[in-house]
Amino acid sequence: MLAFILSIAFLAVSAYQYIIGPLYFDRKSKIPGPTSFALTKWRLAFEDWRGHRTQAINKLHQQYGPVVRIGPNEIHCNSLTALRTIYGAGSGFERTAFYRMFDVYGKQNLFTFYSTKAHGERKKLVANAYSKSLMMKGVAASMVQTKVSQYMAFLEAKDTEPDEIFSSLHYFSIDSITHFLYGSRFGGTSALTGNIKDRGLLSDILNPARRRLSWFAVHLPTFTKWLYTRKGLMESLLVPLLPMQKPATYTGIRIHALEALQRFQHAAETEPGTTFTESTIMTQLWKSHESVKGAGPGALDSLDIASECADHLLAGIDTTADTLMFLIWALSRPQNAHLQRRLIDELCALPDHALENGVPKLEALDALPFLAAVIRETLRLYAPLPASEPRSIGVDCVIDGYSIPAGTVVNMSPYSLHRNENVFLDALKFDPDRWLGPKEQVAVMNRWFWAFSSGGRMCIGLQ
Ligand code: HEM
């Protein structure tokens, strides 16, 4: 009898905790959305498994409006007011544990810090190196121009043979970013000019099983970490269960970051003074390491520096290569042939002094209106990071009139913001000319344009 009563009590408590509470008594129950999503996080995880998460959330916005409940403790928003409340500078919202999968060697970095303070301190060390004025002139600009020349030579060497553009754009992207982060001597790669080892760094990134691994890392983080950190006999026994066989995604570029730092460190110790001739992200971080050496919490150790560099590489490599790939694909479609022609004409009209060794200077490219419109339209319709950017805050708040309890995970996504038909007419059409229309209209679209996020945690690569 006692067992029966205890079972009923257990069922009643579970029903309240997992069904009645979330659906009727939780403050989030006022937020519109389907019951199945409010009841369990696995409903959204299922869409993620199918590769439809971002599109499914967009459909929910179309059906339920600008604020929807997508999980027992998770909501998704799609309005300018929510954008300011959540991502505006000084909003108090912080990144969630989701980002910890991007820690490198167990070390947090710019991408994964939660707290505004820790993030701000690290950002101060590198922000200047990313400033537009430095990028457009000097060493960084000529390095990018060299990589463009090498990419053109790579394509021309293929003659009439078609190129598998997804891989070759990754060569361009890894070579450019490693030179920027590490410099030519310590870790700059040569994938474009045929270095097999450097091309090999990309094999775990280009492996399609990577998507399955990210599903596991997002939805079963502890189990996934456990699976990948077993050693010896246990490791061999678990091989069939791994979502992606080792080496898992980014293993190559993580090892590469550490090796680059070791080479740099060795040179710094054996040839003092010579290592700072090239200004790179690694030299910036190293200078701070030297100035506060061993002096408490501000001091960066070698793993902090390697983690920071590897993180920038993994943040920049796919985003850059995928944007270029979508841009080229969009222009290659027969219905866009006229856009391709206009872009060629704009580039061919550049005067000789805007070229260096036959390649346009970055400053000259930056001033081309149609090129800017084509890039912006690519980033709007095919944002390389289209999905939700989760945040949370430790106090209750109000978003678009809904009371949101402390600790709720709130999200917004470029995919949904960029498809609002009231802002982007004929939103699914690739139409660069929309960015060349009346100023007031462009100003409104700019407010909704969110490919690089916004506020204190926006992309550092954009500046
Ligand atoms: C088309 C190219 C790029 C796009 C669309 C892009 C987009 C983004 C977005 C949306 C975020 C915020 C992510 C979030 O909060 O969930 C971000 C952050 C970041 N990106 Fe980019 N990115 C691009 C290129 C780059 C490049 C080339 C680098 C560096 C070489 C870079 C480094 C970073 C870093 C370090 C962060 C973290 C910033 C912070 O938290 O302060 N990105 N990027």
UniProtKB/TrEMBL annotation:
<dbReference type="InterPro" id="IPR001128">
    <property type="entry name" value="Cyt_P450"/>
</dbReference>
<dbReference type="GO" id="GO:0020037">
    <property type="term" value="F:heme binding"/>
</dbReference>
<dbReference type="Pfam" id="PF00067">
    <property type="entry name" value="p450"/>
</dbReference>
<dbReference type="GO" id="GO:0016705">
    <property type="term" value="F:oxidoreductase activity, acting on paired donors, with incorporation or reduction of molecular oxygen"/>
</dbReference>
<feature type="binding site" description="axial binding residue">
    <location>
        <position position="459"/>
    </location>
    <ligand>
        <name>heme</name>
    </ligand>
</feature>
<keyword id="KW-0408">Iron</keyword>
<dbReference type="InterPro" id="IPR050121">
    <property type="entry name" value="Cytochrome_P450_monoxygenase"/>
</dbReference>
<keyword id="KW-0349">Heme</keyword>
<comment type="similarity">
    <text>Belongs to the cytochrome P450 family.</text>
</comment>
<protein>
    <recommendedName>
        <fullName>P450 monooxygenase</fullName>
    </recommendedName>
</protein>
<dbReference type="GO" id="GO:0004497">
    <property type="term" value="F:monooxygenase activity"/>
</dbReference>
<keyword id="KW-0479">Metal-binding</keyword>
<dbReference type="InterPro" id="IPR036396">
    <property type="entry name" value="Cyt_P450_sf"/>
</dbReference>
<dbReference type="GO" id="GO:0005506">
    <property type="term" value="F:iron ion binding"/>
</dbReference>
<dbReference type="InterPro" id="IPR002403">
    <property type="entry name" value="Cyt_P450_E_grp-IV"/>
</dbReference>
